[in-house]
Amino acid sequence: MGREVSESCVDSLLTEMVSSYCDRFYANKPELAARRIEAIGFQVGHQLSERYTMERPRFSDNLEAIKFICKDFWSELFKKQIDNLKTNHKGTFVLQDNRFRWLARMSIDPSSEDGDLSQDNSAPVTENKAAQATSMHLYFPCGIIRGALSNLGIPCAVSADISSLPACSFVVRIKA
Amino acid sequence: MAPLAPRSGDAIFASVERVNAELFTLTYGAIVRQLLTDLEEVEEVNKQLDQMGYNIGIRLVDEFLAKSNVSRCTDFKETAEVIAKVGFKMFLGVTASVSNWDADGTCCSIILEDNPLVDFVELPDTCQGLYYCNVLSGVIRGALEMVSMKTEVTWVRDMLRGDDAFELQVKLLKQVPEEYPYKDDE
Predict the structure, then answer these.
(1) Segments making up each domain of chain A, as ranges
(2) ipTM summary value
(3) Closest C-alpha among A77, A152, A168 to residue B27
(4) B17 and A7 in contact by Cβ < 8 A?
(5) What one-character-per-residue DSSP string does A122-143 give?
(6) In whole angstroms, what is the distance from residue A21 CA to residue A27 CA?
(7) In sequence order, what E strands does chain A have?
(8) pLDDT for the residue numbered A115
(9) Amino acid A112: pLDDT
(10) InterPro entries from the xrefs (chain A) (predicted)?
(11) d(CA B157, CA B8)
């Protein structure tokens, strides 16, 4: 068992990181804040997947790498695996976590029209502050997944969908 | 009689939800790196890390009081011991020590020999003025302010700058008396 810290260290650091970027550094530019938060996640995912794959043979194909993210990688971070993996066999994978830990303590107004956000900065401009705050929190895990896969040689785009709360789905689109 | 303050945070740390420290360490590192890119000035990064810590500290103190079961500290000396032995252990899983008290008991050093924030970290020459762990000083300042103590927290030693330990000087500036919205005789 490696070194551990209390979960509230991570929770409060993430909360503060998101609010620093959204409310202080880029208060009027949510798309820039989102890009920075995603970049921080990317960096973390990239380094973590480097560490977690050190003693593994290369993955034979994309599906193997995605399965690694769903099982081992997710377990290291959240002590549970992804609950459901779907694919269209054309490079799109949907990873569903039925109770995503980083959303578990967040209250979200269910009336927010569309929980979809994508990392290429086309997030819908929503009037709902709570929904916007939540989507800001999702750029970080999206970045982590994109960083982890990028380190495994798989360039992709990752977005999150929270339309079926408390489940959260991450949609990975592998670039051809 | 009020329960005795725990002497160490071991039992509390064992009972809280814990996560892999790598995630925490690498996330903090990535944040510092992104701040250096976005804010450019090292001084400004120091300031923002301290601010982030302060904001974390003013929230974290509630969790600390709720879970640690410590009773009111009789003086600043006891407060410093509780931060070092219980606070650091409960959140970061490491124990700090307290020393270098001044004569009137309002200024001391909290010394940390093991610090999960800096695992894997080496500072490049371009970051010489950076107080990498500045979030920690902010957390202490913020948390103490919530329990009516105005403090000034500064770095004395920093292992990333070649020192043999991390040393934070905590100076009590003033103790703000708690104000109640009512009078005793009402």
Answers:
(1) 7-174
(2) 0.90
(3) A77
(4) yes
(5) -----S-HHHHHHHHHHHHHHH
(6) 7
(7) 4-6, 84-87, 92-97, 116-118, 156-161, 168-174
(8) 46
(9) 45
(10) NO_sig/Golgi_transp_ligand-bd, TRAPP_component, TRAPPC6/Trs33
(11) 24
Q: What tokens appear for B35 in the block? A: 């701040």
List A residues 30-59 in contact with B (Cβ-Cβ < 8 A).
36, 39-41, 43-44, 47-48, 51
* pLDDT profile of chain B (186 residues), mean per 10: 63 91 96 95 96 96 90 90 94 95 95 93 90 97 94 96 95 84 65
pLDDT tens profile B63-97: 999 988 888 888 999 999 999 999 999 999 999 99
**A21 against B179, higher pLDDT:** A21
A105 reaches B (C-beta below 8 A): no
Helix (H/G/I), strand (E/B), else coil: B115: coil
Task: Cis check for the bond before A166: say yes or no (omega within 30 of 0).
Answer: yes
Crossing angle of helices A30-52 and B21-39, rounded to 10°: 140
Residue A72 · residue A62 · CB < 8 Å: no
Q: What is the CATH number of domain A7-174?
A: 3.30.1380.20
pTM: 0.88
CA distances from B140 to A102, A138, A143, A148, B152 (A): 25, 29, 30, 34, 9
Contact A39, A140 (CB under 8 A): no
Which residues 115-144 in chain B show a CB within 8 A of chain A?
116, 119, 135
